[in-house]
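Work Package 3 (structural annotation) set out to generate three-dimensional models for the target panel prioritized at the project kickoff. During this period the team completed the workflow that converts sequence records into discrete structure tokens, so that structures can be stored uniformly alongside our sequence database. As a representative example, we reproduce one entry of 399 residues exactly as it appears in the project archive.
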Amino acid sequence: MALVLRQAFLIASKDTRIFFKDRFAMAFAFLFPFIFIVGWSAALSGQGPRDEPLDITLVTQEEEGISLSVIEELSQSVYASVSTRPYDDALAALQDGEIDGFVVFPADFTQKIVSGASTSLGVVVNDDNPDAEAALSGFAQEVAGRFTEAQIAFRAAADLAAQPQGELQAEPPDRTSAEFDSDTAPTVGLVLERVGDVVPFRASNFTLPAYLTMFVFFSAALSAEAIARERQNQTLERLMSNGTRRESIVLGKFIGTAYRSAAQLVVMWLAGILLFDIYLGTAPVAVIAISVLMALASAAFGVLLASFVRSVQAAGSAGVLTSLVLAPIGGCWWPLFIAPQWMQSLAKLTPHGWANGGFNKLMLFGAEAGEVTQELGALVAFAAAFLAIALWRFRTAAQ
């Protein structure tokens, strides 16, 4: 075993020196990903969540009454922009896309409140805007709730006032309404409770790990072409004739590719931190762990690919084809969390999908290290499976 490892590290060292002397390979491994990351980060800048001010449109179908007082009071709020429009104007603005929706006070709002009868506020939104519907419905329920509380309080006060002092009535008096008018309407104010700051979307937090994953696997896949060339010119057979073990060649190619992948990771993560100001999340160690396991899985994938191809041309074509197919499926071209569920499930068949899923959890959604154990385990499984198949299938001679 010691001999196998020693031979493997010597082969890996030789391949690494050749790699750093190859200008095109260096440009493909380091310059191309950087260009992609810069371009897509610039294209996606300004996208994502913003701390937008709350904008509420109110409509009343009353000509006078409590609703007018409520709207006037809400319009003085410093926490939101509250505007009022006639019903037809608000409906036209909604259809034209000027507003997301509006809340309607019905024409009998004051009459129902004064009489103690139940009433409700209307919410008008488009069917395809559930966020606006949820926000405006919550606002309408809060306003209605304030009036319901006031009605209950006035009724209770009126009932108590009607009872003789020191006595309790077995049955409440028969009252259908409380003494309730617009002068005693409850105060309705608007207070914005900020649960947490809205963190601006940083496009590089997605583009850097996504394209880093793509190019790490791309470079590893293209390494199969170099292995196929050594098989074709009988370099591998000469190594075998000099006492090199077949297992040493496989492990050497695996370790050499892992070296190059690790160099890509170091350079690109440093560039991300220094130039793109990326956020590694609350568990940066987990980000590093996923990166290392991704490098190992990609190295094993490169050797696996080389064990199936027979010629240099086939190796080059297979490397490009597999890379361009697996990258979009695995979420390197767009975030998986915006993809349909069937595509998210399909991504789990690729190491790219597990790596990008882990990066997104940690860097975009603030996950802790314990929440990406599945992603870590999946990458270990892919690396072990790829390497095991490569050891079984690898041949040193062209057949």
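The mean pLDDT is 79.
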